[in-house]
Amino acid sequence: KSVTPSRHGDDPEYAFDHPMTQEAIYAVVSAEDRRYAHKQVGQWLDARGEGDLLPTARHHDLGGRPALAVPGYLQAARLALFGRDTVAVHAWAERGAASGAAVGPLARLLETRADAWMTVGELEAACGAILQASSLQPRDVGLALKRIRIETTLAAAQGQVQTAQQAAEALLRLPTPEAAPADFARTACVV
């Protein structure tokens, strides 16, 4: 084991010195005991407000509580998007979805995938993901605005003027723009 300075007050942080050490210990500890230990560590990290949610997510997953891992996978997907690592975005988003994400977080995972596909010009895939996300959260004005932007961009790329006009009409039917003024303005510019 190695002990590092803690981000959690006086509590030391432990890590395996080498992956083979971890494998050796895992080989002698029962699956039930490993699951219990990971569950406890996940709870401990949650209680201390760990800012980096990915380690906590891994412990929740390995502790048999995958739904609690979803915020960490969403955070990892968003960070990967920020770093323009679209492969990682999709991997983390898929892992989050497979972990039993509730409707709200699942919509955010799909939205993040749509953003990743937009960065590489995969407009149809982006459109599919944002349509799924907005169907999960039909009252989310931000998702609706992003859907309209992506649909309009796709329609323009395919030369479908009528679809672009329908997107403009959908924009006018949305609730008042105070809900998301920057998104509304950005969408109006695209449309």
What does this structure look like?
The chain is mainly alpha-helical. 70% of the residues lie in helices and 3% in strands. Strands 1-2 form a two-stranded antiparallel sheet. Helix 2 runs antiparallel to helix 3 and helix 8 runs antiparallel to helix 9. The longest helix is centred in the N-terminal third of the chain and has 17 residues. The protein is elongated. The N and C termini lie far apart (57 Å). The model has no long low-confidence stretch (mean pLDDT 84).
In short:
The chain is 70% helix and 3% strand. It has helices spanning 19-28, 31-47, 53-62, 70-82, 86-98, 103-119, 123-136, 141-157, 161-173, 181-190; strands spanning 2-4, 13-15.
Give the key terms.
single chain; 191 residues; mainly alpha; two-stranded antiparallel ribbon; 10 helices; 3% strand; elongated
Q: State the major sheet.
A: 2 strands, antiparallel
Count of helices? 10
Task: Write the element-wise H/E pattern from the N-terminal end onward.
Answer: EEHHHHHHHHHH
Percentage of residues assigned to helices? over 70%
Beta content comes to: under 5%
| Helix/strand structural class | mainly alpha
Question: Count of DSSP E strands?
Answer: 2
Assembly status: single chain
Tell me the strand order in the biggest sheet: 1-2
Shape: elongated
How much is the average pLDDT? 84
Termini Cα gap: 57 Å
As residue ranges, the low-confidence spans are none
Radius of gyration (Å): 21 Å
